[in-house]
Design brief:
250 residues, mainly alpha, 10 helices, membrane
Length: 250
């Protein structure tokens, strides 16, 4: 097991080095034009204190909004999924509602959310919507993961639907819920950035739009790389939490 983890870590490290080298080479030889600067040139702008401060503040804002959206979206989705399990008559309607909401482009909701929750609240709400469907599907699937034999035993013992939910279905659903959280974390980052495009006072989304409009190519790439790093770190952290916790519920 340990050798497998070491091998996986080495493969990830080698892949990251190759990706960074490819980014540098593409920019250095202008294989995709001047819009793709060398990675070293992008990193050079971080030597400026003002740029570091701007990028750090924007990164913190987006991380806070994505985290809040992930928390809200996950809680609401889990509650709705549990409601469908406790009241099976609602399950079909909740499934269709979740599918319809997932089919609506998030970017189309921006103007509507600005008129309702305001520019500052829109990023967190869009982030919550971005993770909602993933969490609903993973939770619903997890609640159905308990074995039929175990359900039959509880039914034979006269356990109520609520008791079966608390003692059997929810514990069985934990691994899939953690899977959903891991997959939803990058979606929350994307949702927060999309929400910031509609005039949020700060954040990586605002920085991306501003840098693009002012032809600040290096700053644009730095903001994009910061967003990608935030998504990767959030995925890695929740993936680690899943690995540490999921085995207890198998």
């Amino acid at each position: 097991m340990r050798d497998s983890r070491v091998q996986t870590a080495l493969l990830v490290a080698v892949g990251a080095v190759l990706a960074l080298a490819a980014m540098e080479a593409i920019g250095r030889f202008q294989l995709l034009g001047r819009g793709w600067p060398p990675l070293s040139q992008v990193l050079d702008i971080l030597h400026t204190p003002a740029t570091r401060t701007l990028l750090g503040r924007s990164l913190r804002t987006t991380a806070d909004e994505a985290g809040l959206g992930l928390l809200i979206g996950a809680l609401v989705s889990v509650v709705v999924a549990v409601l469908g399990t406790v009241l099976p008559v609602l399950q079909a309607g909740l499934d269709r509602l979740a599918a319809v909401l997932n089919a609506v482009p998030l970017i189309a909701l921006g103007p509507l959310l600005i008129a309702t929750v305001g520019r500052e609240g829109s990023p967190a709400v869009i982030a919550a919507l971005a993770v909602g469907f993933v969490m609903f599907v993973s939770t619903t699937s997890g609640l159905e993961a308990a074995s039929t034999a175990h359900r039959d035993v509880l039914a034979a013992l006269g356990a109520s639907r609520t008791t079966t939910l608390l003692r059997l279905r929810l514990p069985a659903a934990v691994p899939m819920v953690l899977d959903g959280l891991t997959q939803a974390a990058p979606a929350a980052v994307l949702g927060a950035i999309v929400g910031e495009w509609f005039g949020a006072p700060s954040g990586l989304g605002l920085l991306l739009v501003s840098a693009m409009q002012n032809y600040q190519t290096e700053l644009l790439w730095a903001a994009g790389l910061a967003a990608a790093l935030l998504a990767i770190v959030s995925y890695a952290v929740l993936g680690t939490v899943r690995s540490l916790m999921a085995w207890r519920f198998r």
